[in-house]
Amino acid sequence: MLLHWKDGDYTAFEKMIGAVADAGVIRVEDLCELLDWSPTKLWRHRRQFREAYLENPLAKRRLHRDGAEIVYLTEMGALFAKHFLSLPKPPQPVSHQTSHTLALVAILMRYIHRYGRDGADWYSTREATDQLAYVRHVALGESDADMRTGVVRPDAALKGQQGFWWIEYDNDTESARVILHKLQRWAAAVEGLHESFRRVMWIAPTEKRRDQLADIWRRLQDDRADMQFFVAGEERWE
User: Fold this and answer.
1) Fewest Cβ atoms nearer than 10 Å: which of 30, 38, 43, 110?
2) Cα 45 vs. chain centroid, distance in angstroms?
3) Domains of the chain, with CATH numbers?
4) Are the C-beta atoms of residues 22 and 73 closer than 8 Å to each other?
5) What is the pTM of this model?
6) Which superkingdom does the taxonomy of this entry point to (predicted)?
7) Which of 6-15, 49-58, 119-128 is the most confident on average?
């Protein structure tokens, strides 16, 4: 739903909280672009929110280690988002997954810079997991409980004019054995689905890591999934 906040029928407060909740953590410049706000407008609204929730701020900002200014929800903000978005549980507050989450949003930003927003939908981990469960239910008659037992949780998913992709961002921290098992789980997860739902895009930080991932998949000799491997910034949506 991250791309829907800009034109949705929401207050400025709801747009900001909703977008940050969907992103998990987001660079200020990306949040401004997604909402079509200037930085001045963003901080004017943020100041109003801060004054209204002085004792329990809903969102905070800080500098990331790469120097970017980022925004994230506090625990109170996550609780607010839970009720506002009717979630079963609050979004996870900012954590050690910050860099991973920012990398996912960066994938989306690169896509819309190249292709625009028209016809595009971005699914967060929560939304992508729900979508995978739904697609498997429609195609295979699988129950939600069966789907969620031992099957992968996508990092994200993207639907564009060119098609649909499940997305995995690999930050080069997992062993070959872990990657092997994850690839096998992905192959099982999309087995039996229409070919349009069998594409899984793996995005790695370096060419070396991309080649390692692709080599593990190649050695599996498994044709149940259409695994695609790219270096971040070189994705091809085709």
Assistant:
1) 38
2) 25
3) 2-95 (1.10.10.10), 117-231 (no CATH)
4) no
5) 0.90
6) Bacteria
7) 119-128
